[in-house]
Amino acid sequence: MKSLINYNGFPSLGMKGNIPLAGPTGWQDLGAELIFIQDKSGRYLSFAWPDAYKYDIVCEKIVGSSIDAVFSPVLPEVYQKRIQKILERRIPEQFYCLFRYQGQFFPLELVISPILVKEEKPHRVLVMGHLLSEVEMSHTNLSSLPSHLDPYQQLLTKIARKIRRTLNLETIWQQTVDSIGNALQVSRCLMIAYSTKAEQLEIKAEYCHPCSNSILDCSFDWQAEPYWRQALMQSEPVIVDQLALDAFQAKSVLVVSTFYQNERNGLICLQQCKHLRPWSAAEIEFVQELADQVGTAIAHATLYQELEQATHAAEEASRLKSEFLASTTHELRTPLNGIIGFLRLILDGMADDPEEQREFLEEAHNSALHLLNLINDILDLAKIEAGKMVLNLSPVDLNELFEAVNNFTCPQAQQKNLSFKLKKPHTHTPILLYGNYQRLLQVMLNLVGNAIKFTHEGGIVVSAEVVKKKIFCHDQEFPAIAKISVADTGIGVSLEQQAKLFEKFVQIDGSHTKAYGGTGLGLAISQKLVQAMGGQIDFYSMGEGLGSTVTFTVPLCQVPVMKTVPLSSDEEDEEDDVSDLIFESE
Length: 586
Known about the structure:
The chain is an alpha+beta fold. It has helices at 59-62, 76-89, 134-138, 151-164, 169-184, 226-233, 281-347, 354-386, 398-415, 437-453, 510-516, 522-532, 569-574, and strands at residues 21-22, 34-39, 44-48, 72-73, 93-101, 104-114, 124-131, 188-193, 200-208, 219-221, 238-241, 252-260, 263-272, 394-397, 419-423, 432-435, 459-468, 471-473, 476-478, 480-488, 537-540, 548-556, 582-584.
């Protein structure tokens, strides 16, 4: 068997023969060593090789043959795909390829160019080749890859390398649109963020030609234009030529989606505004390949952002827990020191008479109760966080609950010269809440206690309303809810700080803790308890110094029968109620 490849991988000479030429007259004048024409299937239409006789090659036998019949590349499928790619992109390529003919092997350097015809898509290629010598073979890798990247491939590599250098999402977006816009000279190139939950598409970055208007930071309804809907429903590029201008004044539009693990995470939109533009196959392929790179970069940057946020949140939680422990330690130490101090006074005989001794004991007792409340708060929070808080729910009379709140908190308000009012609807039947009496009382005492603590003048109003709104919780349906509010004229809370009120281990201002006492756990515990009983709790304040209102809801066992006849003036004075606080829920 004859071969031009010896055991060391270098070519050797074959046998001489005649010089058959099967090609158009004048090809010899081109000076090409080897030249032939093929159609898109690889079939040889012409073939001319002046040195063919040296290897017993008959050119006439090659003309008209298929790509894998006579003079064939070792990998015909790869070679044929390359021809089709060159025809689609209309860009020549240079590469190395190994051919075979009747047992002989020919290492060739080839340049394949599309043959452009008038008003038709190219369907033939002109191939010029050079048979590699032994010296050239020693410096050549006979792979199927091109030896030189085409301009688009070079640009793609450059842009992809630049994008991979950063994990900043904004930088990736901007570098993408700038690179594409400058390369293709479009009117605009837009980078649009996409989320399955978003109803609007938001433009995150923009390349804008000086002759076009910027639309950066705009958002728009993706259902407004058919091509946006189409782009979000398919993975292939969407190409649109518009006779009537859209909101962006674009005449030709190309939209390509970016993906990561088959999930869309963005859109790249190219717009030509002043004239229609035919997007070439090479341009579309370039944008598609870049979109693949950008989709991965966006996913990595998003993940990095989420990790940064999680790390920051963990660090913040650790800091808040440390502050909480420090504050709690201080709060526990204060009543404990009181207990020890007053008992020591008694043991040391510092009491002048039995009455003073009793005062010392009462103070020690009050400090012990305060210490017990703090410990209970901490234990409650621990139980809630561990999911071990079990509540036995049953009907609770609102009147009984309000009476207990009044007995506990009214004296505290009177000591600070604050007004204290309880307002509830006038009903013929009891208002029965569905909850746990002790936990509802705990929530209300905490809310009212906070209101008294942070109010220096004015007063506190505790009110209840009945809202006819069916809710489903605890595996049963309830016909209405009670909305209980605690409003005060105290120090209030700034709008910026209100979102943090119900967070665990968070106190709005450490200076308030020192001035007023407390661990800052009350609202967090109250929120968890209210939610466990099927309700929700909210906080409202217009700002610092403007008072505040806390409301929470509780399911009602039944809708109470409301009084329609107003109370007499004497009854109204005796009972500090308001008439018929009942509202229909939409």
